[in-house]
Amino acid sequence: MSEKEIETSEVMKKLAAYIAGASKMKLPEDAIEHGKYHLIDTVASVISGTRLTPGEMTIKYIKTLGGTKEALLLGTNYVTTAVNAALGNAMIAHADETDDSHKESRSHIGCGAVPAALAMAEREGRSGREFLNAVVLGYDIGARTNFSIGVHSMYDAGHSTHTFAPTFGAAASAMSLAGLNADQVRWGISYTAQQVGGINCWQRDLDHVEKGFDFGGMGARNGVTAATMVQAGFTGVDDVFVGPRNFYSTYSTEPRPEQMIDGLGKRFEVIQTNIKKWTVGSPIQAPLDCIEELQKKHDLSEGNIKHIKLRLSDMESPVVDDRHMADICIQHMVSLMILDGTATFASAHDEERMTEPAIVEFRKRIELVGEPDIPRRNAIVEVTLGNGEVVSHTQVAVRGTPDNPMNRQEVDDKAYDLMAPIVSKDNARTLIDKVWDIEKVENVRDLRPLMIA
Length: 453
Known about the structure:
CATH topology of the largest domain: 2-methylcitrate dehydratase PrpD
Helix content: 40-55%
Largest sheet: 4 strands, mixed
Number of strands: 6
Distance between the termini: 56 Å
Oligomer: single chain
Strand order of the largest sheet: 4-3-5-6
Number of helices: 18
Number of domains: 2
């Protein structure tokens, strides 16, 4: 069957038209508000990540690439191509576990889509409103890509849900800001599909370096590449979703391409995306919420605790069990929470404390149990006190999730605390305020001085 004989599907026609028109769409107020939350939360994740080892390595690498000055590598004064900036900023956004996550698609869409949108908005001199619309679009298309393939079957087959969603999300954001028409978007989607990949062995990354590339950098780079190639005149396959050897026949055992357009313009996935209250791995969020709640009611001092039992989903407990990185080791983070009374970005990234005698000793009192009946992102924490009393707390809706969302002030406080030590208190304050009024920003390049360290 020749390409001319393959009719473009209704799914592709509607999807391409939606992406092509997204920059001019009037978004509902809740999508606008949550879009701003995730925009500033991701930018803060990048800026704070520049001072972590994966971030430092990424900055050093990006500076060797040179290139036309189009977009900023955040937290530095280095300007490079949009492709390079997207790669670098997205890797750094996931230099640790500070960035957002989308539970139902099993992905971190923001660390790929937001840096891609920022790089393209700078390159094209787009307005704040166009930038925000592209960010919201990235979450919508990224999540729906995984839904259309089948999230659990992807994971079971070894395909990384954490690379597919950010790649398509980044591409959608970039294509919107590149000003592609519907025909060009179809070709851009094909170039995106050709570049998508990722396998689940990222779980064996010991230093959070490859993980930053897998979760963020690769998708952002490939998405911007797809958009700019088509913008430059490249043509491609009209519909990669249908015909022989198509996208779904390659990657899915239960393809549902109609999911790509289900609820588009009505259901906004950015609203369903989690923002992390605690700057640690997602499975640790609920246990720390539990400890915080128990601290309000009981004496959880080190001397009054005999034993702590952490009950998590058996799908998540192995991800955080006795890891050698502080922010994804549940035993270490719970120990910090008890000994310090809280958990901060600084303490979660103080690797030297992993060998602190008091923490090493306290970890012996912690038992982690994975249970099949506990849903992902939930936790039950049981603490045996010195007098033998057992107190417990069950956390179903983690703070920062759609069922228990952080408010604007909490997002503001988190972003400020992450950025102020690096870009200065004044710049951090001004940048956050400008994001809250992003519709008034005429050219996203005007934000660049506020993101330089």
